[in-house]
């Protein structure tokens, strides 16, 4: 990808948390993000898919610099922001937005919707009072909370989960950011409104040419909402490719297992459930030395258990971290 199209460049990014085991116990490191590399272009959306505890939220929060990386590099629009102090990150905060899983938890309950949407504009000193009012009403209209006067002066608890997630989207986009992270944005909503909300986000993302990181544990929705899919397992990206390529030609045994676990109305295909390898993801305090999926992988060799596989580009833009594909090149 040409350098001027790249919005976000992530190189070997790590985020380790220090935890204490027991009341007086020794400290240990949870390697929540452990060597992640990718690039994201202007207006591109990526779905990051992985099971609970694989490090998706840590990835999202680290690229937004809500966490400071432990190691690696984070480059946004050509600027290295890996360790930039918080006080010098105002410009970056203005360029980025976050939509979280739980809209009620993410909104201050004592503010009305108008105030919630006006707040980022005030913090970043955007517009006069009148201009801000215009922007707030326009934002409500864009997320289809109309008539806007009916919604603007309500409080979060007066709205449904779906309506409040629309407010969260409006808030994340009101400063016209170029990068947005949506962390499981629909998993707490009623099934009936999930597609509506995902469609709204996709529409806004395409209209405004926003780069988008959509975090989910549900591989089945991703195909409609992103150009790329990244598969995360035990704090690492084990496969990444354009959406169509990944769905048509999944390579990593874990990705194949995930895809075959998607409920399929065809009873013949349901048999594929049996292919999902049993077992749990490894501890992130003491991950296994080789491939992290090796303990569950039906194809694991002794090399897989001792040596970490490199990431290789098997076909154009299709990367996989697995000895089945790296062996020949190693
Ligand atoms: N602040 C923290 N301190 C210590 N450990 C943490 C912290 N945040 C996350 N972790 C640990 O890091 C690992 C990855 O967590 P993370 O929340 O990023 O995963 P996830 O894929 O988003 O999971 P989920 O889908 O359940 O939200 C987990 O083992 C988690 O317990």
From TrEMBL:
SUPFAM superfamilies, sorted: P-loop containing nucleoside triphosphate hydrolases (SSF52540)
Domain ABC transporter: 8-259
Chain intervals with Basic and acidic residues compositional bias: 267-277
InterPro entries associated with the record: AAA+_ATPase, ABC_transp_ATP-bind, ABC_transporter-like_ATP-bd, ABC_transporter-like_CS, Oligopep_ABC_C, P-loop_NTPase
Domain of life: Archaea
Region (Disordered) residue spans: 264-287
Keyword GTP-binding on entry: no
Entry keyword Glycoprotein: no
Name of the protein in its database record: Peptide ABC transporter ATPase
Organism, scientific name: Thermofilum adornatum
């Amino acid at each position: 990808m040409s350098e001027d199209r790249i919005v976000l460049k992530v190189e070997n990014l790590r985020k380790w948390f220090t935890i204490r085991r027991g009341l007086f116990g020794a400290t240990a490191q949870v390697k929540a993000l452990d060597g992640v590399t990718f690039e994201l272009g202007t207006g591109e959306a990526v779905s990051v898919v992985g099971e609970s505890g694989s490090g998706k939220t840590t990835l999202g929060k680290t690229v937004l610099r809500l966490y400071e990386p432990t190691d690696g590099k984070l480059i946004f629009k050509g600027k290295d922001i890996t360790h930039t102090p918080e006080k010098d990150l105002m410009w970056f905060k203005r360029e980025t937005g976050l939509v979280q899983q739980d809209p009620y938890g993410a909104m201050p309950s004592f503010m009305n919707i108008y105030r919630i949407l006006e707040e980022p504009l005030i913090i970043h000193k955007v517009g006069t009072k009148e201009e801000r009012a215009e922007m707030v009403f326009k934002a409500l209209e864009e997320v289809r909370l109309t008539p806007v006067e009916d919604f603007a002066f309500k409080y979060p608890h007066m709205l449904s989960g779906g309506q409040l997630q629309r407010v969260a989207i409006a808030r994340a986009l009101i400063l016209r950011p170029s990068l947005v992270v949506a962390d499981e944005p629909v998993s707490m909503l009623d099934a009936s409104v999930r597609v509506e909300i995902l469609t709204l986000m996709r529409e806004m993302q395409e209209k405004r040419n926003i780069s988008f990181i959509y975090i989910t544990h549900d591989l089945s929705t991703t195909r409609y909402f992103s150009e790329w899919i990244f598969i995360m397992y035990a704090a690492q990206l084990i496969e990444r490719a354009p959406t169509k390529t990944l769905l048509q030609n999944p390579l990593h045994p874990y990705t194949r297992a995930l895809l075959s676990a998607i409920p399929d109305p065809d009873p013949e295909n349901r048999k594929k459930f049996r292919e999902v390898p049993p077992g749990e993801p490894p501890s992130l305090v003491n991950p296994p030395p080789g491939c992290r999926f090796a303990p569950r992988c039906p194809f694991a060799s002794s090399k897989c258990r001792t040596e970490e596989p490199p990431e290789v580009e098997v076909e154009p833009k299709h990367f996989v971290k697995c000895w089945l594909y790296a062996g020949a090149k190693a």
